[in-house]
Amino acid sequence: MTTLSWLNGAAASSIPLDDRGFLYGDGVFRTLRRVAGEVPLWDAHLDKLHRDAEVLGIGMPEASVWQADLQAALAAWGEADAVIKLTLTRGCGPRGYRPPDGIQPNRLLQLSPLPHYPESHYQQGVDVQLSALRLGHQPQLAGIKHLNRLDNVLARQALPTERFFEGILLDQEGWVVEGIQSNLIVRLDGELLTPALRRCGVAGLTRDRWIEASRNSRQPLKCADLTLEMVLAADRMWLCNSLIGVMPVRELHLTQQVKQFAVEALNCP
Q1: Residue 42 has pLDDT above 70, yes or no
Q2: Active-site residue, selected from the candidate residues 89, 145, 166, 206
Q3: Which of 17, 34, 198, 235 shows the greatest Cβ crowding within 10 Å of its Cβ?
Q4: pLDDT tens digits, one per residue of 17-33
Q5: Which segments of the chain belong to CATH 3.20.10.10?
Q6: pLDDT bucket at 166, cuts 50 / 70 / 90
Q7: Would you report the helix, strand and coil content of the chain in percent, each value rounded to 5?
Q8: Can you provide one Gene Ontology molecular function annotated for this UniProt record (predicted)?
Q9: Is 178 a catalytic residue?
């Protein structure tokens, strides 16, 4: 089975042509995993989806509604493992950017096969490349996982995936922001740092939970404005998201330079 889709509580193979998520990217989403029949951090993912929807002024269905969708879809899926994608759009409406009054959101739950990454990725690290694409600034959308992901599409399209696991994105002013599909953590002068994401980028749940869990620890994860020079001065680098967990980086490839990092596992407090 490739992908199973559940739209507004029923199995579906299509979406309405006037859905604003399809037409304008007017919506939000989250990606999480089911492993051995368990869905880690389900409630936390719903909370993130709710907060992102609030930024766009989209009404969020009750958690029990999403839970019912999940159970019905999983019964049809029949596998212990899956990638779960939750998408919430503003709903359907006439042509034009302004949303109509009384519009009802559409919710989409999709299940697809869970990728399994080689153990060598975690033991030996992965190679990444600095992307030539630069992210524009939109502080009002910074941090949220909205449906307009064309920057990521273009960056991923240009990435030689047979050589590099991930691409590293800078913004229009040269600040380090994130990976194409992950958040970044570096160790610089003994401190763990992650880009602050005040101007653009997506604040993933793995990153957020690490910041919160480590707040009172001996080595907290701090948000900071990171230049490329700071990353090149770091001795360790990791990628993180809900599917890969935390994965060490071995090499960062620039146009005329290769930065090597020490490979080490990073365990959340």
Answers
A1: yes
A2: 145
A3: 34
A4: 999 999 999 999 999 99
A5: 119-260
A6: very high
A7: 25, 35, 40
A8: 4-amino-4-deoxychorismate lyase activity
A9: yes
Binning pLDDT at 50, 70 and 90, where does residue 146 land?
very high
Identify the CA nearest to 201 among candidates 133, 129, 135.
135
* Residue 142 pLDDT > 70: yes
Alpha-helical segments (H) within 164-219 = 205-213
Structure tokens at 130: 């600095």
| Class of CATH domain 4-112 | alpha beta
Residues 34, 74 contacting (CB under 8 angstroms)? yes
Q: Which of 89, 178, 206, 259 is catalytic?
A: 178
145 is an active site residue: yes
Rg of the Cα trace of the chain? Answer: 19
By the 8 A CB rule, do 154 and 32 touch? no
Q: Is domain 119-260 in CATH 3.40.50.300, yes or no?
A: no
> How many angstroms separate the CA atoms of 71 and 74, rounded?
5
Told to judge if 173 belongs to the known catalytic residues of this protein, a careful annotator would answer no
Residue 66 pLDDT: 98
- Cβ atoms within 10 Å, residue 174: 10
116 three-state secondary structure: coil
Token representation of residue 217: 């620890």
